[in-house]
Write a structure and sequence with these properties.
This protein is of the alpha+beta class and 658 residues long. The protein contains 16 helices and 43 strands. The strands form twelve sheets. Strands 11, 12, 14, 15, 16, 17, 18 and 19 form an eight-stranded mixed β-sheet that branches. α3 crosses α11 and α12 crosses α16. Bound molecules: manganese (II) ion (MN) and magnesium ion. Magnesium ion binds next to loops.
């Protein structure tokens, strides 16, 4: 099936879109192509992560920022502006939202089953796709059964079932490349054949990230080395234009063997004419990629070659326009332009405006899967033996923080198995996200014992962060905690009813570190300001910091499981400035918590009281939390707490004896 649409007139023509019949404006390349010149438009989706409906299944509500149904509406318009076009997906389509989990964990893929993202892609009409790293998350059998329904070729050159002596000798998992035989309509309306080569690449890190599925079954090769081997072969087979489907970010300019974000060195490979990039969940061209040698964020080129990255979850279409010219018996690129088309815009007041309506045919195609996913997120996927609430998360070790720590530690230990970091103690850092404050007295996590639904996991972990691990010293660990306990005001020993919390300090920067025990001496000043600047270099609030019952010394080494925000400098934590990262995991913390609950069946995240306030006899502090906290007051361990009446603005007040 070809998606090349010959133009009806030279400059403009009537086109029916979701907005009704409009006069489409042709791209200049289509409008002004002469005989022997043809406009080829290449559209890209990337990192869809099963987002078809404009819907956030975690919060169970419609959103305007995601969904292939929205992107598809753009596709219809954008196709109508060009004489010839291709639509390509750049990978990470099979996993990453509750619909993906529902199919993998609940419904399953049997021979002949259709995966909803594939159904949606078939409905729009893709010309090709490549594999992203997340295609491997549910195992090879699940992947191959899902791909079987695709009415478009799926290519990936650097994943092999058996390795040969060189990349082109490998037996690849899916075809390494495809050469599409198409007819191009030129400026005079005459059709000419063209052979377009598409070759796919995925980060070789899949071998670590999905070790349990992949080890012994497939091998992954370096992206650039694989490209250098295959591209000449594609030319020999007659490819006139070659597009790299690089499920890899726009990263370092310098090539290193096995690099994850290889799109810049990849662009230097002779014979590649254009690149579709992804994996980073960012937009190219955009200023977010300023400052990388060889990358031009104004023209949208890498080493002079057109390149696009269409955001993630269907947020944008990447669009590369090529003006092709007959050159003897072949085609050459005579002009190029690159842009992206967003499906929504963020207004100055942070509200979101949709820029396009959903394409109803796409919604209809997966309506049943959508309904089933809604039922899935609303029903139990596991059970909790302990209540998961955050009412006391800022004053005592807490189950809602504990479950996050447990799941992160469980995941990071698996990820580090077989690496040089295996065997180091893995601690876990987590902070309460929903802990009142400006969110108000209802803004707490509160899941009673019993069923846990996917919706509840969003409540436990508010942000779509991804897991990171850092490797730090005992000294850095101590300072990480000193930074964290800056949330508390300094108190005067022997005095009653002092205000405990500094309202300037956001709860998401109050990291509790699980796996060590420690006490917080509130009589001491904070070492760091609420923003993380060193304030009192000699101050020490963290006392009795112990690992396995022995004091933590400065030169001990620890791995801390955390998230991308913290590990790359968010909150300015000592030991977490980006240079200590040893694991950049592909999975979100939320996905990891879901996976942990699904695999465990019943969870029992009893807080283990690994941190508490150091005793200050005769001293008490006041702390405000949600009034619903009252029912859990007996559960709080390691702290002496009593009700102290009403706080302001609907909060309840509690007194803690130190
Ligand atoms: Mn992705
Ligand atoms: Mg990826």
């Amino acid at each position: 099936m070809s998606h090349f649409r010959p133009s009806m007139t030279r400059r403009t023509f009537l086109s029916t879109t979701t907005a009704g019949t409009v006069l489409a404006t042709l791209h200049p390349f289509s409008a002004f192509a002469s005989a022997g010149q043809a406009h080829l438009r290449i559209m890209e989706t990337t990192d869809l992560h099963v987002h078809v409906y404009p819907y956030d299944y975690y919060s169970d509500r419609e959103v305007d920022t995601v969904g292939l149904a929205r992107t598809a509406a753009h596709v219809a318009d954008i196709r109508s502006e060009a004489t010839n076009s291709l639509l390509i997906d750049n990978g990470d389509f099979l996993q990453g939202n509750p619909m993906g989990d529902y199919i993998a964990y609940e419904r399953g893929m049997k021979e002949g089953d259709m995966h909803p993202i594939i159904t949606a892609m078939n409905t729009i009409g893709f010309d090709a796709s490549t594999l992203g790293n997340h295609e491997f998350n549910y195992g090879l059998d699940f992947l191959m059964k899902s791909l079987a329904g695709a009415e478009f070729p799926v290519v990936s050159a650097n994943v092999a079932k058996t390795l040969g002596s060189s990349p082109t000798e490998d037996t690849t998992l899916v075809p390494p490349y495809v050469i599409l035989d198409r007819m191009l309509t030129d400026g005079e309306g005459n059709a000419h054949p063209i052979r377009i080569g598409l070759i796919g690449f995925v980060p070789p890190q899949i071998m670590n990230w999905d070790r349990r599925h992949l080890e012994g079954n497939v091998s992954a090769r370096d992206i650039v080395a694989t490209a250098k081997a295959y591209v000449p072969q594609m030319r020999e087979e007659g490819a006139e234009i070659i597009v790299a489907l690089s499920h890899s970010g726009i990263g370092p300019a310098e090539y290193t063997d096995g690099m994850e974000n290889a799109s810049v060195p990849l662009a230097m490979v002779d014979g590649i004419d254009a690149l579709l990039t992804g994996h980073h969940h960012r937009v190219f061209p955009s200023a977010s990629y300023n400052g990388i040698a060889g990358v031009d964020t104004t023209t949208g080129t890498i080493h002079g070659k057109p390149a696009a990255m269409g955001g993630f979850w269907g947020s944008h279409l990447g669009v590369i326009d090529l003006m092709l010219e007959r050159d003897g018996n072949s085609w050459r690129i005579a002009g190029q332009s690159v842009e992206t088309r967003p499906i929504s815009k963020r207004n100055e007041d942070r509200s979101i405006t949709a820029l396009v309506e959903s394409d109803q045919t796409i919604l209809d195609a997966v309506a049943t899967d959508h309904e089933e996913t809604l039922a899935y997120v609303r029903r139990a996927v596991g059970k909790t033996a302990a209540p998961l609430h955050s009412y006391f998360a800022l004053v005592a070790d807490d189950p809602s923080v504990q479950i996050v720590s447990i799941a992160q530690k469980w995941y990071v230990e698996q990820m580090l198995a077989g690496t040089e970091h295996e065997g180091l103690p893995v601690l876990s850092a987590a902070a309460p996200f929903k802990a009142g404050g400006r969110g108000g007295p209802e803004y707490y996590t509160d899941v009673p014992p019993g069923d846990v639904a996917i919706k509840n996991v969003a409540d436990l972990y508010l942000y779509p962060n991804t897991v990171r691990a850092v490797r730090i010293s005992g000294a850095e660990l101590r300072d990480w905690l000193e930074r964290s306990v800056g949330i508390f005001n300094q108190v005067e020993p022997g005095k009653a009813d002092q205000v405990l919390l500094n309202p300037e300090f956001p709860s998401y920067n109050f990291d509790v570190i699980d796996g060590v025990t420690y006490e917080v001496d509130l009589s001491q000043p904070s070492k760091f300001t609420p923003k993380g600047e060193l304030e009192n270099s000699d101050a020490q609030r963290i006392v009795n910091l112990m690992f396995n019952g022995s004091p933590v010394t400065d030169d001990m080494e620890f791995v801390i499981a955390t998230n991308n925000y913290r590990a790359s400098g968010g909150g300015a934590f000592p030991g977490a400035k980006g240079d200590t990262i040893i694991l950049e995991a592909p999975d979100t913390n939320r996905d990891v918590i879901v996976r942990y609950i699904v695999e465990q069946g019943t969870i029992d995240p009893k807080a283990d009281a690994n941190w508490k306030f150091a005793p200050l006899p005769g001293t008490s502090v006041l702390f405000d939390t949600g009034p619903a906290a009252e029912k859990y007051i007996g559960d709080v361990k390691g702290v002496e707490i009593e009700s102290a009446g009403d706080g302001p603005d609907g909060f309840a007040r509690f007194r803690i004896g130190l």
